[in-house]
Structures are given as structure tokens and as C-alpha cells.
């Protein structure tokens, strides 16, 4: 076999990123280098893979036929990398943990303090995101999610739910005389569903009361602390802030939590140590 994976990878990146410049940035190479790799692949295969339409690159029928096979190669390469890293018994080195912003900012610091004290050679990267990192594509080694996993090749541990409540500054609540019909709410783009859920739980509010929306939970919490309205936060965070008051103290929402790792990566000593420590801390 003389097929060059480097050239195939350049082709795949160009398709996925939409341009040579974006593909070069994604792969960390110079654009002329990546362009030569794609051209070399076309020469070796004796076919044209892209057509230029204006400033865009468009796949030819031959390129489209090749794309499915190259994607299969990329998936196989990812599985090889997972298997190789999964058999690593080296404790020192990097590890990537993906979790929501509030979990990264308020739940994990104490856990990471223990981890750093016990294993200072482990280099930690926190990916604070509301999106689900793809463990199979190595976007993270371990993930903490609020929804049950759907992929069969993941090791999953359900940790205890963490209650969340509604919070606002004491001065804000005084300003509206505690009348929630006058309150502005801060939430996500899914606020319509949240308004329905709150109403069903005996806390009736209107969708129109969600005056400020942000997909960044820490931004929401900063707005709550700035006195701009009512927002949701884990009770362990909200109750600990002396300037913040719980709205409707009897009202809480359980936040489910799952700890995940790819089954092949779980055989890595480093991942196993961090996974077990997180499982213990989140279950305590």
C-alpha cells in the first residue's frame, strides 16, 4: 500500500472545514503545505476532488465518493489512538475533563485540589462547556454530563443528583416586594420549556418574564449577582453566597449528573485514577 494518510487527512480537513485556510489552521500546518498535499492526492488518484466556485471549494462526484472511505479511515485512526492511550500505564501526563461551566467553576476546584496534591504530575485541562464533548473523537478523556449517555461504548456512572433552586439578590427581591409576577428571569434559550416546568411545579411564571438569555451559565449567575433578575443555580453554590437569597425555598429542581469515559480509555491508569477520584467526590 502506498496510500498516504497525511494527504487523505488534508483532504478530509478541507471538506470538514470548508476551505484550505480553515483546514490548515485545524491541522496546524501552513496553507500552502496543505494545498500541496491535496493536489498530490489528486495526482496520485488521477482525479479531481474539488472544484472552485468563486471562493468556495466544492466536492466533485469523485471527491464525494472518496469522502465516505476517508471518514472511515479517520474513525479507524481514532479507535487506534483510543486503544493505544487506553493501554498506557503512565500516571503523569495530560488529561482533559469536560463539564458544565458551573460544575467547573464551583464543584471541581476542591476535587482538583485533592488530585493535584496526590498526583502533581497530572496536567489537567478543563473544558467548561454546555455542549457534549465527543469522547470517541478525543475531545475529552472524561465528561460530566447532566443527561444519560446514548453511546454504548461509554463507561457511565450515575452520581447523586444535585438540587438547584431559584436565586436573586436580596435587594432585587426587596425591589419587587417579593412579587414573582413582577420578576425578570435569566435563563437559556430553552426558557419556554423552563417556564412550563416551573409552572407545573407550582411556581407559575410566564415565558415573557425571561428578559435576558445566555447559553453561558456563569454569565447568567453573574447577571443574577448583579441584581438583574432571578436565575437558577445549584443550591450548594447559591446558598453559600450571603448576598443571594433563595426564591421560594421549598422549590428545588434535581440536576442529574453522569460521569463518563470511553471504555477503551478507561483502561489507562491515568484516566482510571482521575475517574475514580471524581466518582468518589461527586458521590460524597
Describe, in plain words, how this protein is organized in 3D.
- The protein is an alpha/beta fold.
- The protein folds into three domains: 5-86, Arc Repressor Mutant, subunit A; 93-160 and 256-283, Periplasmic binding protein-like II (D-Maltodextrin-Binding Protein, domain 2), CATH 3.40.190; 162-254, 3-Layer(aba) Sandwich (D-Maltodextrin-Binding Protein, domain 2), CATH 3.40.190.
- Helix content is 44%, strand content 24%.
- The chain contains ten helices and eleven strands.
- The chain has helices at 5-17, 20-27, 31-45, 61-86, 101-118, 170-175, 191-200, 217-225, 235-238, 269-283; strands spanning 50-53, 56-59, 93-99, 122-128, 142-145, 154-169, 185-187, 210-213, 231-234, 244-247, 253-262.
- Strands 3, 4, 5, 6, 9, 10 and 11 form a seven-stranded mixed β-sheet that branches.
- Strand 1 (50-53) and strand 2 form a beta hairpin.
- Helix 1 packs across helix 2 (20-27).
- It is globular and about 75 Å long.
- The chain starts with a helix and ends with a helix.
What ranges have pLDDT less than 50 throughout 5 or more consecutive residues?
A: none
Computed over alpha carbons, the radius of gyration is 24 Å
CATH architecture of the largest domain: 3-Layer(aba) Sandwich
What is the residue-mean pLDDT, rounded to a whole number? 86
What share of residues are in beta strands? 15-25%
Number of strands: 11
CATH class of the largest domain: Alpha Beta
Kindly identify the CATH topology of the largest domain.
D-Maltodextrin-Binding Protein, domain 2
Amino acid at each position: 500500500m502506498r496510500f498516504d494518510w497525511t494527504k487523505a487527512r488534508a483532504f478530509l480537513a478541507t471538506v470538514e472545514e470548508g476551505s484550505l485556510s480553515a483546514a490548515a489552521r485545524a491541522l496546524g500546518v501552513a496553507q500552502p503545505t496543505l494545498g500541496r498535499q491535496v493536489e498530490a492526492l489528486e495526482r496520485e488518484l488521477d482525479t479531481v476532488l474539488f472544484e472552485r466556485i468563486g471562493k468556495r471549494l466544492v466536492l466533485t462526484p469523485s471527491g464525494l465518493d472518496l469522502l465516505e472511505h476517508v471518514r472511515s479511515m479517520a474513525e479507524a485512526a481514532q479507535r487506534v489512538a483510543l486503544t493505544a492511550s487506553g493501554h498506557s500505564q503512565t500516571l503523569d501526563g495530560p488529561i482533559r475533563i469536560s463539564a458544565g461551566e458551573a460544575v467547573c467553576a464551583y464543584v471541581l476546584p476542591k476535587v482538583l485540589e485533592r488530585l493535584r496534591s496526590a498526583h502533581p504530575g497530572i496536567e489537567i485541562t478543563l473544558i467548561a462547556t454546555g455542549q457534549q464533548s465527543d469522547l470517541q473523537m478525543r475531545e475529552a478523556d472524561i465528561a460530566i454530563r447532566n443527561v444519560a449517555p446514548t453511546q454504548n461504548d461509554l463507561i457511565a456512572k450515575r452520581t447523586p443528583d444535585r438540587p438547584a433552586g431559584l436565586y436573586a439578590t436580596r435587594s432585587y427581591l426587596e425591589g419587587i416586594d417579593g412579587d414573582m409576577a413582577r420578576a425578570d428571569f435569566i435563563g437559556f434559550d430553552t426558557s419556554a420549556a423552563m417556564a412550563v416546568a416551573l409552572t407545573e411545579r407550582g411556581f407559575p411564571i410566564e415565558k415573557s418574564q425571561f428578559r435576558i438569555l445566555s447559553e453561558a451559565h456563569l454569565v447568567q449567575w453573574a447577571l443574577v449577582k448583579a441584581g438583574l433578575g432571578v436565575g437558577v443555580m445549584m443550591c450548594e453554590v447559591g446558598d453559600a453566597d450571603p448576598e443571594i437569597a433563595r426564591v421560594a425555598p421549598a422549590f428545588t429542581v434535581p440536576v442529574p449528573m453522569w460521569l463518563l469515559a470511553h471504555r477503551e480509555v478507561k483502561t489507562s491508569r491515568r484516566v482510571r485514577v482521575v475517574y475514580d477520584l471524581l466518582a468518589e467526590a461527586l458521590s460524597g
